[in-house]
User: Which sequence fits this backbone?
């Protein structure tokens, strides 16, 4: 199988966001980055499918030069080669922009299966996978918890609300968005890190006319506020008022 895994570089979870001067994006010079966690599970699933059915795993990513950090990490974990759509503007682009940029680079590869994470840890739109599938002309399914390859088809398990699951059979080629926790992540070995230095990273430019469809007008950091309220009256009156506040204001009941 020829498997593509789309990965994204995102700010580390421990990093405290700092905004740029016009409050429209983060100060990228202050950021430490890592691989998007749902994408790491998609990569692991791709590697496991290759081990079962043969073929190759190609990681695909979009963004500025710094994105090669997570590309090299993916290669060290076992991916065979990589495609990097390099453009500074893609670092802050929306799902439609990223999908348009990657679709142009991926179309000529004729992948049998494309895997993405369910959503990104930074913007969290969960739209990239379905938009990319439409761009590539592939059927897609989301929130995948299990993947089985059966001849020229897939049997997948989707996570639904309320603890329910859905089982689907899909034709190949197809695109799947992978839920975190589907598998146990592997880590790069020293041998893998050394081998990654020799693996191919094909750099391509995004197609002309690719632009973000969203405009960020302003960003702000959540304000942490604490307030102490003293409830007066008799014990019965105070208890009644407490229940009312929990139900109507805090919505905890």
Assistant:
């Amino acid at each position: 199988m020829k498997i593509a895994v789309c990965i994204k570089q995102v700010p580390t979870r421990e990093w405290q966001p700092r905004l740029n001067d016009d409050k429209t994006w983060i100060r990228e010079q202050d950021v430490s980055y890592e691989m998007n966690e749902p994408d790491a599970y998609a990569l692991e699933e791709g590697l496991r499918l290759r081990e079962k059915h043969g073929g190759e795993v190609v990681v695909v990513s979009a963004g500025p030069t710094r994105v090669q950090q997570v590309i090299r990490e993916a290669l060290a974990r076992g991916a065979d080669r990589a495609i990097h759509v390099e453009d500074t503007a893609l670092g802050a682009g929306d799902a439609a922009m990223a999908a348009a940029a990657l679709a142009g680079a991926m179309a000529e590869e004729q992948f049998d299966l494309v895997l993405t994470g369910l959503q990104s840890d930074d913007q969290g739109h969960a739209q990239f996978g379905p938009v990319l599938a439409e761009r590539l002309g592939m059927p897609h399914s989301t929130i995948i918890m299990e993947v089985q390859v059966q001849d020229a088809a897939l049997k997948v398990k989707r996570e639904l609300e309320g603890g329910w699951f859905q089982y689907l059979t899909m034709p190949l080629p197809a695109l799947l968005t992978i839920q975190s926790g589907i598998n146990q992540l592997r880590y790069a070995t020293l041998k893998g890190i050394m081998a990654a230095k020799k693996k191919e990273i094909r750099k391509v430019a995004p197609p002309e006319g690719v632009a973000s469809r969203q405009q960020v007008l302003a960003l702000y950091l959540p304000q942490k506020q604490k307030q102490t309220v003293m409830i007066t009256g008799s014990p019965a009156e105070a208890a009644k008022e407490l229940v009312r506040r929990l139900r109507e204001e805090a919505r905890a009941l």
User: Anything to note?
Assistant: The two ends are 51 Å apart (CA to CA). The chain has six helices and eleven strands.
